[in-house]
Amino acid sequence: MDTINWALVDWSRAQFALTALYHWIFVPLTLGLSFILAILETIYVKTGNEKWLQIEKFWMKLFGINFAIGVATGIILEFEFGTNWSNYSWFVGDIFGAPLAIEGIMAFFMESTFIAIMFFGWNKVSRKTHLLATWLTAIGTNLSALWILVANGWMQNPAGMSFNPDTMRNEMHNFLDVLFNPVAVNKFIHTVSSAYTFAALFVVAVSAWYLLRNRHTEQAKYSMLVASAFGIVAILMNLFTGDGSAKQVAKYQPMKLAAMEGLYEGRSGAPLIAFGIATQSKENPRKQDIHGIEIPNFLSILAFNDPDAFVPGIKDLVHGNKEHGIPSYRERIESGKIAIDALAAYKKAKKAGNTQEAKKQLALFKEHFKDFGYGYYYGRDPHELIPPVAITFYSFHLMVIFGTWFLILFIWLYAELFRNKLENKKWLLRLAVISFPLGFLAQEFGWITAEVGRQPWVIQDLMPNMVAVSHIETSSVMITFFLFLITFTALLIAEIKIMTNAIKKGF
Amino acid sequence: MFEQMSYETLQAYWWIIIAFLGGALVFLLLVQGGQTLFNELAETDEEKSVLVNIIGHKWEFTFTTLVVFGGAFFASFPLFYSTSFGGAYWVWMLILFAFIVQAVSYEYRKKKGNFLGSKMYDTFLYINGVIAPLLLGIALSTFFTGNSFSVHKERILRIGQNVEAVISRWDTPWHGLDALWNGFHGAWFQNLMLGLTVLFLARTNALLYIKKMTGENSILERISKKLKINAGLFLLFFMIWLIRLMFIPGFAVNNSGKIVLENGKYFHNLITNPFTAVFLITGVILVLYGLYAGIFKTLDKAFWYAAGGTVLTVMALFFLTGFNHTAYYPSITDLQSSLTIHNSSSSRFTLVVMSYVSLMVPFVLAYIWWAWKALDVHKYDVKEIKQEEIKY
Known about the structure:
The structure holds two protein chains of two kinds. By secondary structure, chain A is mainly α. Helices cover 71% and strands 7% of the residues of chain A. In chain A, a hairpin with a 3-residue loop joins strand 7 (457-459) and strand 8. The radius of gyration of chain A is 25 Å and the shape is globular. Classes of the chains: A mainly alpha, B mainly alpha. At the A-B interface, helix 2, helix 3, strand 2, helix 11 and helix 15 of A face helix 5, helix 6, helix 7, strand 2 and helix 14 of B.
């Protein structure tokens, strides 16, 4: 009988995924719209033209409808690290807690203080002070994204810490390594630029809807001009950091890269699948067959900047590849087991006062620590360490396809606005409207790629999800899961209805 | 500068910050207290709108303080985070749930197409108003009366078992709700008293704040009556809790580092630690003066006396349970698993880094103060609210 309570692990994961995915419906709009508001208000203050103020106030109203629900889902995420992942909170709390606390002190207060001025301060503070408050709201909001993404980047590539065998946890020894962790820096820019893109799509879609109905034509065109320019910058930043992300995944999480591409057999000069589908293999139930259009050598370039580079596949990682110096998962599991046993032996020797033995065990532990998390898979099938391939593959590809489309769309809209012919291009306006839900999907697919693709790791190579959970009954997690599901869904419906009403009402 | 501090000093420094955030949180629960008063103080929809807007402009401060309190606790005392949140699952989940439904209610209650209807959002505000202060008060009381859990770090080395590999384990299936029937030296009664104290304190502070912020005479008249009753109940529950606290056994760390029960431990802490005594006495005097000034002299400043007093008193409670060789999160089922500020803190390095971050706190307080003042420039009445362009 399996001694792992998988139901508990799965429900805990489901609850976290539910909260994170709901949170990410609302937050990107907050992140991006806050900057669009700051830009619009700056134009108003500079030009003194009341038209811009009217535009600013309209989008601010929509911003307000969306803001609170992002906050509501956010508080749950923070506390869920403790409530549902208590072992995780202990094992890495010394490093992981810091960015969360800094996020609160540095960013949340800034955001919540100045947002109050932004909404209720119109007649109470001067025009310039109000503008400053709007900028500080945007900066505060985006700073909070910085710190939570530093925390997430650290889970993907734990840096700046070491394990303290006496306290039995990981401890920070270099804060700058945590903050400037290459994965964190890239992840921050990639994620916020995707949020800016999403917010730009929102403004573009709503404006296009007005243009299609010949309502508020002037305000809609002004809004679209700002949003499409903002969108072009954002999506370019996004594509550029997406390339950086791929290189980091190749370096730190090769299994995620293999899953993203459905690459089973590693190869030199690996192609990238441009469009493809994944189907269950008939010969091997563990395998997905990938059929699609390939771009030769492109995966090798994307991952290593070298058209002939070897990209390891799932099989190379599970079974090892001597030629390329890749150890098998079985070897890593053995090594991890040695680390865990050596740590237990060290604690025992230390308690007994046997310094010599303690020193020996400690050295052994340190040698094998890099495989620590694999040790928990001792006696298990190494194939359990493969993430779900089909979900990761589809999420990644759809995200990239949608992202590329957004670049084309923004440039196109901007060009037509410039030529002053946009109102006549009804089909382009319709495309702009239907691209908004695609933006939402691309956002969520990005997170699914990043998070499902790294399963089963909660902290890459050090802690798998099965040992990160809290000691609670599965039924408790199921109850809270459904409570959150019902509440979040009700609030989402409310937001959509209120938002639609406000949009119908107009500027 | 923080590098030169000893590990113990850093742990104490962070406990003071946690105490301050805890104090600020309890003071800001006036938003929740206010939410329980909307129907009691307003007879018309217009009056209700005045109250909702006065209180609603501040909801984010309370919310953010709760989030920062959690984050700061995580960063400085991660073992508490892991043990309490993962263990007292139901208490924390109920608190969180009460806050989710609050966040959107102000914004959505009067909006067209709000799906659940205005009444439902007002009910959400009421639920949040009662549950949050009550449960946070009960949770704080368990810092003195104890909980049922055990912590064994070696459990994490158990391969092939996951639930058994969790280092912190709650010993009852009620996951924190047991604080309401924990019979250990009458803990349940003590916990309930602090829960009710915080609830009535939140209502009292809200009354003082609304009194300061409204120019609507009908509301002001009703506040006068309510203030006496709520202040009276708050003082009654608090006195019962505080006096009992001086006599119940506390959780002391003895010379060999073992946790032992000590009769009158919290009284001993109070008399041996002048710092704590000064905070408690000043805090209580300020609150009492604030209540006196609010009830009998109708001073606008009464609110600020009560606010300052609330922060200082709550800080004193944190000092009582955290300093002077005391376990601040005691376990009654496994005494030696009790958490102290020394055995549950972050590493020295992390505390140093976080201490530098804490230098931002005065700056943050300064701009919060400025924003608070900027929005509170004039009093609200029905006429004023009708003219507001953006309102809840």
